[in-house]
Amino acid sequence: MDGYFSSQIGLVPSYRLSVILLGASSLLIGLFTNIFPVVFSAISFGSSYIFMTGVLIIWGIHIFQTNPSFGLGLPFLLLALGQVFGSLIGGGVAGVVGYKAMFILFAMISFIALIFKPVK
């Protein structure tokens, strides 16, 4: 699906769409505590995270064409490191400002990723 979608609209729009969906799902859970927005946030976050993983793998393989295994492994490594350190930082921030503020803050920070553009 990622390869098909990215080939139809392009790598940069696919990347930006996944960033927007990830940030919006975090913002949604920070703003609302009702069951429907929370469930929609979880579904949106999970599916857009998987989609972004595919986009980053395609991007990595595209960048490292002479060594595609490196292009495949590097995004996975960086995603794993982001999960480890993001969880540590998120827990610390939530302990200081609370969970709602943490989700809103992290959503706003995630939109910074929109300034980065995959190499064509």
* Main structural class: mainly alpha
- Give the count of helical stretches: 5
Percentage of residues in DSSP E strands? under 5%
Shape: globular
Quickly count the domains.
1
N-to-C order of helices and strands? HHHHH
Primary descriptors:
120 residues; mainly alpha; 5 helices; globular
Write up this protein:
It is a multi-pass membrane protein. The chain crosses the membrane at residues 12-32, 38-59, 71-91, 97-116. Residues 1-120 form the Major facilitator superfamily (MFS) profile domain. It is found in: Cell membrane. Keywords: Membrane, Transmembrane, Transmembrane helix, Transport. By secondary structure, the protein is mainly alpha-helical. The protein has one domain. It has helices spanning 2-9, 11-31, 35-63, 68-97, 99-110. Helix 2 runs antiparallel to helix 3 (35-63), helix 2 packs antiparallel against helix 5 and helix 4 (68-97) packs antiparallel against helix 5. The mean pLDDT is 89.
